[in-house]
Design brief:
Strand order of the largest sheet: 5-4-3-6-7-8-9-17-19-18
Oligomer: single chain
Largest sheet: 10 strands, mixed
Order of helices and strands: HHHEEHEHEHEEHEEEEEHEHEEEEHEEE
Shape: globular
CATH architecture of the largest domain: 3-Layer(aba) Sandwich
Radius of gyration: 21 Å
Number of helices: 10
CATH superfamily of the largest domain: Vaccinia Virus protein VP39
Number of strands: 19
CATH class of the largest domain: Alpha Beta
Strand content: 25-35%
GO molecular function: protein-L-isoaspartate (D-aspartate) O-methyltransferase activity
Structural class: alpha+beta
Family: Belongs to the methyltransferase superfamily. L-isoaspartyl/D-aspartyl protein methyltransferase family.
Enzyme class: transferase
Helix content: 25-40%
GO biological process, one term: methylation
Subcellular location: Cytoplasm
Length: 390
């Protein structure tokens, strides 16, 4: 329909300015997102936003149609070729599976796995409506992959994962590649990995943010909805006690300058990664409606976000002022101490030449992992993090 064509072309043009390949852009131009979000208007469907499609009983978002730009970046990382066999973990609406089906063509095969039976049923209907009935959609725990259709040339997860699960690696054929939103101590990076001798090594790493995998293979990350009216949500790298955060945010605060200037990208990318690696009290707060977070926090499409540290009823969050200089805003009984700790981290990151995701290398070892270096130990693998010079 004509009403969908113009906003879809605008979205594709926007993607191209971000360096998305012509092949992947053509897939977004061909596959209609509105078929997978049939109850929403064009101006919503074809914005470059993630759209929540399911929440649990506590109000936490547990499924969505992912942000198109991030989907496109990951599809470029995946490097799908015609005729290949692809396993997708996290079906959601079925939109990404349809994009994959377009990329592999009639000689290829796409298998998509989701843990929720209702999502699987709806995704099958959407795929039929979109002219992609050939996609195999399976209800099951994605951590186990889908062995009956293995081996695969590519494996992609569209859900945040804490570890590289053995089934995925075992079901990949020779020369295979896996792309996953991998947890690195509470933050996610989309990592494209291939075999390198006896381990797996990254070929590209980009920032991303996805809803976490659920079920028995979920990681220790914690997400809590603190206020449903504004959708104020806190994310932690693991289990922990959270005090009265809304009350602290409404109480007295302390402002402590870091005397370090940053861009929004540096704040969202480099500093969030630095805090995750070096600070076990790291946290991220987000809200869908303006309410408690100070302005201007980080503002990705569709919600407001701030990063910082938390300890019980006290926390400190980073703010960028009009001149892009950072301050740490402390709240709660220990606000001064936490603000000082946060400023120390900011200055340490600055002294370390502001490492970003660009240049980050991640090696994953299932056995015989290194004993030294910046290591992140998981259930099935050990990640070794390093940065290239410059």
């Amino acid at each position: 329909m004509v009403e969908w064509q113009e906003p879809r072309e605008e979205l594709v043009a926007q993607m191209r300015t971000r360096g998305i390949s012509r092949i992947v852009a053509d897939a977004f131009r061909t596959v209609p997102r509105h078929v997978f979000l049939p109850d929403l208007p064009p101006e919503t469907v074809y914005r470059d936003d993630a759209i929540v499609t399911k929440r649990d009983a506590d109000g936490r978002a547990i499924s969505s149609s992912s942000q198109p730009a991030i989907m496109a970046l990951m599809l470029d990382q995946l490097g799908v070729e015609p005729g290949q066999r692809v396993l997708e973990i996290g079906t959601g609406t079925g939109y990404n599976a349809a994009l994959l089906a377009h990329l592999v063509g009639p000689e290829g095969q796409v298998v998509s796995v989701d843990i929720d039976a209702d999502l699987v049923d709806r995704a099958r209907e959407h795929l039929i409506d979109a002219g992609r009935p050939e996609v195999t959609v399976v209800c099951g725990d994605g951590a186990e992959g889908f062995a009956p259709a293995a081996p695969y040339d590519r494996v992609i997860a569209t859900v945040g994962v804490w570890d590289l699960f053995p089934a995925w690696l075992d079901q990949l054929g020779p020369g295979g590649r896996v792309v996953v939103p991998l947890d690195v101590r509470g933050v996610q990076r989309s990592v494209a990995m291939e075999r390198a001798g006896g381990h797996w090594t990254s070929h590209s790493v980009v920032p991303c943010g996805f809803m976490r995998m659920r079920g028995p293979f979920a990681g220790p990350e914690t997400t809590l909805v603190l206020d449903r009216a504004s959708d104020l949500t806190i994310s932690l790298p693991g289990p922990g006690e959270v005090g009265d955060v809304p009350g602290a945010l409404e109480g007295p605060s302390v402002r402590m300058p870091a005397e370090v200037g940053v861009s929004r990208t540096q704040l969202l990318d480099g500093l969030s990664l630095w805090l995750a690696i070096h600070e076990p009290r790291w946290c991220m707060l987000s809200e869908a409606q303006p309410g408690r977070l100070a302005s201007p926090p980080l503002t990705p499409s569709g919600f407001r976000m701030a990063i910082g540290v938390i300890d019980g009823d006290s926390l400190s969050l980073l703010e960028a002022e009009a001149d892009d200089l950072l301050i740490a805003r402390g709240y709660g009984p220990e606000r001064t101490r936490l603000a000082a700790d946060l400023v120390t981290h900011v200055r340490s990151w600055d002294t370390a030449n502001r490492p970003m995701t660009t240049g980050l290398r991640i090696d994953a070892y299932r056995e015989a992992a290194p004993r030294e270096g910046l290591l992140v130990r998981k259930r099935h693998t050990t990640l070794a993090l390093s940065w290239s010079a410059g």
